[in-house]
Recover the amino acids of this structure.
């Protein structure tokens, strides 16, 4: 029951509500058969974007192109998209089978055919045994499977999922996550999944789209986004990163050296147009920073920050150490527990933080 | 030393239920029982209640052709009123629930619907008279516009007037429960139906109406029960020309024929209950309550 997968393109897509711009002229290309996550905090425009793709929100400006067709102005059911709603939106007066068969009934397909197809869709989500149950007789996870079957029975080329896992308990969430991914791979269609959980986006996506304030901050594979966040927002939102702010001191051999309140840092910037005194930010992963006891100002390293340890949290296989180093937020360092035990530190002690130059990534300024 | 006695939980529950149960018993069960008892009494011109156990009050009710004609007229009124109030009430509730986007505008419009209820029933009915009468506003307007050259007689003291009165008085009883049911419909269900390719009409028949059934049933019970027992509207707007069970019971009462009136009332009660039972069999109202 797979439809032909087609690429989706968002061209200067804009959504305005009165004077407020919810989605600000975003461009995005989602190749056919991609698992794409729209990631961002609430109010960032990710849901509006999804609802425009679904056709439940009118497009204020710009275009939506699916395959060879501009779908901006056609009704939801004719778009070859199908949406799974956040609260599942199952019809409470219909059995699971009738819920799944609803779209087929609306198209005037006869009962035997539509029940046959509905049963096939139920089998796809392993809910064959629940065909006669009403939604209120099902658990949250089961309702979600029914909603998934209902969305898939129309054989869409894009499945839109609006925070599909947020209503589930953590254990079920991880199980459903794996199942969504398997389903997407089996069907070979595009899934566009809205979430505010970066962990979910990392685990699922072929393409992560980080949004903020109605704009796309970064779009790329999970690995790209995590290893090379483009803006301070992405670095902070994605987690596991530190943003180090400072001012340009000098530029030598494609290396920007800059002064930070409690030390110095450097980053490679082949084509950055920066001059002395400009503000710069770099992102450094928490697991790539080396923590050393004391205030030893390692002169041999281009990156060195000193500060006081403000908190230590044991997390099992690693220890989270936060160091106040004069930055907006304490610098987070994750230390493997064996390494921490070899040289334990305590709260309130002085510490020096160092990292290799190639692990610091120059960030575009927030407004760029 | 006094022992502290614990009152069992179920005793407390009964105590809490007692006031409502007592009111029900004294003002509802007891009077109905009395009506049933009186319906088997005998009566004479100067002795209006003779305790007895006779069936001729019922025999009179069922053997008189007038009864059947009156019941037919009342049921007919009832069904027509029900149909009109249902269509109107559903449409208005649908507008309030789905077309008004914000809760404040919904509330304001809802309050506007209740404005007629700020005055009494009788005043509202009587106010139709100068409007519909022989020399009333409508007739004057029609004549001065040259649409008709004689006053229209069917406007007042007619079936039309009674029907108008019923619709005017009881549409709100349909609007309120139907609106209540509709307001509970999750808006995402409508969106999901659209996503699944349902047209506006299909959304109405496949989603809105099934989910509004309990409200429709409750509104229907209100309208059916009220119209079945009505005698005021029929008297005021029907001008004594329109037969109705409520009115015939009232007439019997005014002649102090209590036992036949009681028998009539019991039959009316039975028929109304049958109608409501039939409705409840179609729609499960418990979900709503």
């Amino acid at each position: 029951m797979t439809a032909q997968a087609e690429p989706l393109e968002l061209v200067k897509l804009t959504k305005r509500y009165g004077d407020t711009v919810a989605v600000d002229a975003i461009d995005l290309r989602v190749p056919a058969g991609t698992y794409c996550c729209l990631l961002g905090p609430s109010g960032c425009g990710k849901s509006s974007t999804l609802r425009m793709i679904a056709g439940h929100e009118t497009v204020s400006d710009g275009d939506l192109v699916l395959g060879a067709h501009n779908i901006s102005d056609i009704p939801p059911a004719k778009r070859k998209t199908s949406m799974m709603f956040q609260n599942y939106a199952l019809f409470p007066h219909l059995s699971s089978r009738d819920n799944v068969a609803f779209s087929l009934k609306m198209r005037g397909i006869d009962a035997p055919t539509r029940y046959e197809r509905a049963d096939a869709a139920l089998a796809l989500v392993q809910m064959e045994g629940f065909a006669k149950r009403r939604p209120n007789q099902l658990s949250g996870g089961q309702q979600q499977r029914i909603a998934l079957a209902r969305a898939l029975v129309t054989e869409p080329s894009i499945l839109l999922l609006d925070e599909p896992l947020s209503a589930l308990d953590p254990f079920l969430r991880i199980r459903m996550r794996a199942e969504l991914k398997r389903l997407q791979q089996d069907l070979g269609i595009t899934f566009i999944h809205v979430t505010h959980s970066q962990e979910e986006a990392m685990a699922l996506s072929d393409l992560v789209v980080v949004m903020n304030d109605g704009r796309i901050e970064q779009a790329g594979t999970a690995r790209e986004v995590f290893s090379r966040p483009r803006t301070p927002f992405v670095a902070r939102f994605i987690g596991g990163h530190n943003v180090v702010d400072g001012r340009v001191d000098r530029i030598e051999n494609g290396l920007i050296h800059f002064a930070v309140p409690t030390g110095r840092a450097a980053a490679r910037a082949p084509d950055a147009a920066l001059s002395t005194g400009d503000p710069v930010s770099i992102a450094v992963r928490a697991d790539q920073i080396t923590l050393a006891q004391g205030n030893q100002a390692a002169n041999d390293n281009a990156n060195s920050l000193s500060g006081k340890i403000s908190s230590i949290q044991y997390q099992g296989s690693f220890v989270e150490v936060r160091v106040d180093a004069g930055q907006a937020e304490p610098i987070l360092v994750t230390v493997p527990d064996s390494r921490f035990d070899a040289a334990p530190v305590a709260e309130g002690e002085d510490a020096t933080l160092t990292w290799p130059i190639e692990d610091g990534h120059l960030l575009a300024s927030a407004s760029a | 030393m006094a022992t502290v006695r614990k009152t069992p939980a179920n005793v407390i529950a009964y105590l809490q239920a007692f006031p409502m149960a007592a009111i029900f018993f004294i003002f509802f069960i007891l009077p109905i029982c009395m009506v049933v008892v009186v319906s088997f009494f005998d009566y004479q011109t100067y002795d209006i209640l003779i305790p007895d156990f006779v069936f001729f009050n019922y025999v009179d009710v069922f053997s008189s052709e007038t009864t059947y004609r009156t019941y037919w007229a009342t049921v007919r009124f009832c069904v027509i009123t029900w149909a009109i109030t249902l269509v109107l009430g559903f449409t208005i509730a649908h507008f309030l629930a789905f077309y008004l986007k914000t809760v404040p505008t919904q509330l304001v419009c809802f309050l506007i619907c209740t404005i007629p209820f700020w005055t009494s029933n009788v005043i509202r009915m009587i106010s139709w008279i100068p409007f519909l009468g022989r020399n009333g506003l409508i007739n004057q307007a029609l004549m001065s516009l040259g649409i008709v050259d004689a006053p229209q007689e069917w406007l007042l003291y007619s079936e039309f007037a009674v029907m108008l009165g019923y619709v005017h008085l009881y549409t709100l009883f349909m609007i309120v429960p139907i609106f209540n049911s509709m307001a509970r419909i999750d808006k995402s269900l409508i969106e999901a139906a659209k996503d699944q390719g349902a047209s506006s009409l299909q959304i109405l028949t496949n989603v809105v109406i099934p989910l509004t059934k309990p409200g429709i049933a409750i509104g229907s019970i209100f309208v059916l029960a009220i119209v079945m027992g009505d005698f005021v509207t029929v008297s005021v707007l029907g001008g004594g020309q329109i037969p109705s069970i409520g009115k015939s019971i009232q007439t019997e009462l005014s002649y102090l024929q209590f036992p036949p009136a009681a028998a009539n009332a019991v039959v009316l009660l039975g028929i109304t209950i049958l109608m409501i039972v039939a409705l409840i069999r179609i729609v499960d109202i418990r979900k709503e309550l």
